[in-house]
Amino acid sequence: MTDSRIVCSTTLSLLLLALIGHPLAFAQPRFLRYKCVDGGYNNRTTDGAAYKANLNHLFSTLTTDHQIDYGFYNFSYGAGENRANVIGLCRGDISVETCRKCLNDSTDLLPVRCPTQREAIGWHENCMLRYSDRPILGSMELSPSILVGHPFNASNPEGFTQAARKLILSLIDQASAGDSRVKFSTGNITLPNLPTIYAFAQCTPDLSQRQCNECFVGALPKIHECCDGKLEARVLTPSCQFRYGAYSVTQSPPSTSLLPSPVPPLLNKSTHHGNKNKTSETFIAVVVPIALVVVLSLTIIIYMGLRKSSPKPDEEESTGPTEEETTTMGLLQFDFDSIKMATDEFSDENKVGEGGFGSVYKGKLPNGRIVAVKRLSQASRQGVIEFKNELLLVSKLHHRNLVKLLGFSFKENEKSLIYEFLYNGSLQNFIFDPLKRQSLDWATRYKIIEDIVRGLIYLHEDSRIKIIHRNLKASNILLDVEMNAKISDFGIARLFASEQTQTNTSTIIGTCGYMAPEYIRHGYLSSKSDVFSFGVLLLEIVTGQKNNRILSNVDNIEDPLISYAWRNWREGTPLNIVDPSIEVQREIRNKVTRCIHIGLLCIQEKVDERPKMTTVLLMLNGDLTNFPNPSQPSFFMNDRTQHNRS
Question: The whole model's pTM is what?
Fold first, then answer.
């Protein structure tokens, strides 16, 4: 009799819900809820029109990549403060077609609802769309949130809510354990004197397992704010959502869905009667929750114990970045087999470069995009550290003069970084090749120099994090099809605190010929270490000659190129060192001389006498007319040493 009343009450409530057109009853071609986050374009100093154009570009292309068939879209477009970031997430139990339609409808509707805001989020029945002018990928956020409750209470409000919470708790671990494509789980629970309750839980796949868990744990208490005793509830946050109700709140997963297997019912309602049935019900109601708590507690204790006893990174070779690290970077994890196929199994024909810790290959992704794949040498333990360092640092850097990291791949002992492909390769291939460097006229070289300067200014001063590159050299400057220069290879770069100016290190890593004297001799590392490397690189670009350092010990170091440049400067013949393939006409003599002057200032022995990169840019642009005179640079070859230069 009790069960009949519950079913009747529930059915009546759902019929009334449908009659009044509640958004949870039927899928509507509009947003379930939305939030316009910030105060509008007029409250920002950046260009609203430029940002809106970038956003519209993303909206028009969001669902056009048909390689994405798992319902999670994340893209960025534009540069600087006008860069637009968009995330689209579909429920894990709907078809690809339904997903794309939902997101396409959302890109039409959300800008109308939030016409002046640079950040907004909308939750549709089947999908979520979110955009912002700040990085949002990999960031766990609980605000803004939307709470949607059924207008009617269950016949046993307290028991219904407790059962629903228990069901959601059982779904969290499975949803959180999903991969970088889908984090979604469904299930149901049937308890005595209650209707069957159905639920799903989902978080954005860019979150780590820990972040996903934290999101659900933070969202779960919100039930008390809106929905205690309600027949249905839905909690929506930017990073996770869950929904439960007294009828199925999910759809049958399509054949192409990546949805994990549903969670089996926690408890099945008994069909027996009598005292035996009551005893078993009491046993289940009391013992099972206790058992679940005990098992969960033991799991947490064992997990924390294993983490505590695990070797530290410097004690054991790591297999790759942790899930927390990779997901907070906002990068795409590529399947290793697809990378292997893209590079024709890392064939020699596709090899475009080789370094101390691995090789670089040209690859073609299934969507036709050409990429550069930096494959870590399996025999290199130091390379593992480089891999993680480069992955963690470059993911935080976005500048037109830095090579763009697209993602990563690791499988057991195979680790790769996937970069944008730059068709003209490295600067080294041009300036040190007798034939190719003839194609580098002065205007092109000057532009390359400016690009490098702007990239270093971003690393040292303008980015969210302060980076010392430590390995600036010609082979790490890559050129795109328009000969724009981009700094690459951050494997040994160092992260500095915002106010930090220098540090000491006992590990001297870098390339002979580019390392500053204080770094080689004493391990002193600062942004002026990069300035020294830039000075050497600048002289190489001007002369077309490599700085082949002669090194017998740290107190007897000689740089033929530096010595050659200094002698001619001291003798008043700086133009003698210019690459013969450059025709030094009258109109460019001042610029060429200025670059040699700057190069010599950057390689001064005393750190304080080297200019900052912002000052270098002012010098290059002619905004500073009175330069200090350079003194004898470091690593200068003494006059008593014979030096013949071809």
Answer: 0.50
